[in-house]
Amino acid sequence: MSGYDPEDDGAKESFARDMSYVDYLALDPILGAQHRLSDAHDEMLFIIQHQTSELWMRLALFELDAARTALGQGQFPATFKMLTRVARIYDQLNSAWDVLRTMTPSEYTRFRDDLGASSGFQSYQYRLIEFVLGNRNRAMMKVHEHRPDLHAMLTQELSRKSLYHVALDALADGLGTRFAPEAYRLDAPHQAQEDVMQAWMQVYRDPEAHWSLYELAEKLVDLEDYFRRWRFNHVTTVERIIGLKRGTGGTSGVAYLRRMLEVELFPELWHMRGSL
Ligand code: HEM
Ligand SMILES: N[C@@H](CC(=O)c1ccccc1NC=O)C(=O)O
């Protein structure tokens, strides 16, 4: 495109008084926030990988919260669209591990000590996502006590119904039934309930009769499937990079992360499949 001058083409070029791309996207704070603590080349990758993950998690939270509201109002198509978007976000996060995996243990050790006791274990957005979905463990909030604002955000989330609780309301309404209160505990991980499992089985045995609930169930399973892949990619990357060392956050590291692979967000949706 030799000789091309955007001005001849009508491109606006003076932004002294108008909002520009840089202004709108707040690129100064965002692109000025990569503060390496070492001179290790790979630390830049490490920081950006985490910052981009946190940005995608921000969007995931935004969508999950809106999906929860829409579902509470019986707006199934809008809910499905947002849940599909969250699954796509996880697809993005899952692919991103391929970039981080280019870092070897030799390269990571060059700056690991500089990380101190900081760890993804302290990602409040990750914990909020778990809380919104229904995996609620108050013990995970303790690391945020030094930040009353973040602690309050997590506490506030525990006072609301989880996305799964709202899905169970929709399920109960659709089938004209009610579930025992154990299904609705606000501040504990959701435990599989027999009545809920029976209800989902009713839906799967006659999908045509309960199409919206059937679609909702599959969206939730899809979401959990992607979420599980994220956990698996994380633990595999961690093992590849630090082996069985303890985590900077103080946990057993890979052993802890393997244990987390067993978490079930929507247990009845997985358990009932073997009985169909
Ligand atoms: C070199 C790469 C990485 C290593 C070696 C690593 C290591 C670890 C370890 C050992 C833990 C357990 C907690 C601890 O004691 O520190 C952990 C937790 C965690 N990490 Fe990473 N991690 C890496 C990359 C990432 C990335 C890219 C993210 C994306 C945000 C992330 C997010 C998390 C989260 C959310 C937890 C808490 C998981 C839970 O409680 O279930 N990590 N990580
Ligand atoms: N827990 C990691 C350190 C780590 O990965 C980390 C450190 C600071 C900020 C984010 C991190 N990512 C995930 O845990 C480790 O034990 O090496």
Automatic annotation (TrEMBL):
<feature type="binding site">
    <location>
        <position position="112"/>
    </location>
    <ligand>
        <name>substrate</name>
    </ligand>
</feature>
<dbReference type="GO" id="GO:0019442">
    <property type="term" value="P:L-tryptophan catabolic process to acetyl-CoA"/>
</dbReference>
<comment type="subunit">
    <text>Homotetramer.</text>
</comment>
<dbReference type="InterPro" id="IPR004981">
    <property type="entry name" value="Trp_2_3_dOase"/>
</dbReference>
<dbReference type="GO" id="GO:0020037">
    <property type="term" value="F:heme binding"/>
</dbReference>
<feature type="binding site">
    <location>
        <position position="248"/>
    </location>
    <ligand>
        <name>substrate</name>
    </ligand>
</feature>
<dbReference type="InterPro" id="IPR037217">
    <property type="entry name" value="Trp/Indoleamine_2_3_dOase-like"/>
</dbReference>
<comment type="similarity">
    <text>Belongs to the tryptophan 2,3-dioxygenase family.</text>
</comment>
<feature type="binding site">
    <location>
        <begin position="46"/>
        <end position="50"/>
    </location>
    <ligand>
        <name>substrate</name>
    </ligand>
</feature>
<keyword id="KW-0560">Oxidoreductase</keyword>
<feature type="binding site">
    <location>
        <position position="108"/>
    </location>
    <ligand>
        <name>substrate</name>
    </ligand>
</feature>
<feature type="binding site" description="axial binding residue">
    <location>
        <position position="234"/>
    </location>
    <ligand>
        <name>heme</name>
    </ligand>
</feature>
<keyword id="KW-0823">Tryptophan catabolism</keyword>
<keyword id="KW-0479">Metal-binding</keyword>
<keyword id="KW-0349">Heme</keyword>
<comment type="pathway">
    <text>Amino-acid degradation; L-tryptophan degradation via kynurenine pathway; L-kynurenine from L-tryptophan: step 1/2.</text>
</comment>
<keyword id="KW-0408">Iron</keyword>
<dbReference type="Pfam" id="PF03301">
    <property type="entry name" value="Trp_dioxygenase"/>
</dbReference>
<protein>
    <recommendedName>
        <fullName>Tryptophan 2,3-dioxygenase</fullName>
        <ecNumber>1.13.11.11</ecNumber>
    </recommendedName>
</protein>
<dbReference type="GO" id="GO:0004833">
    <property type="term" value="F:L-tryptophan 2,3-dioxygenase activity"/>
</dbReference>
<dbReference type="GO" id="GO:0046872">
    <property type="term" value="F:metal ion binding"/>
</dbReference>
<comment type="function">
    <text>Heme-dependent dioxygenase that catalyzes the oxidative cleavage of the L-tryptophan (L-Trp) pyrrole ring and converts L-tryptophan to N-formyl-L-kynurenine. Catalyzes the oxidative cleavage of the indole moiety.</text>
</comment>
<keyword id="KW-0223">Dioxygenase</keyword>
<dbReference type="GO" id="GO:0019441">
    <property type="term" value="P:L-tryptophan catabolic process to kynurenine"/>
</dbReference>
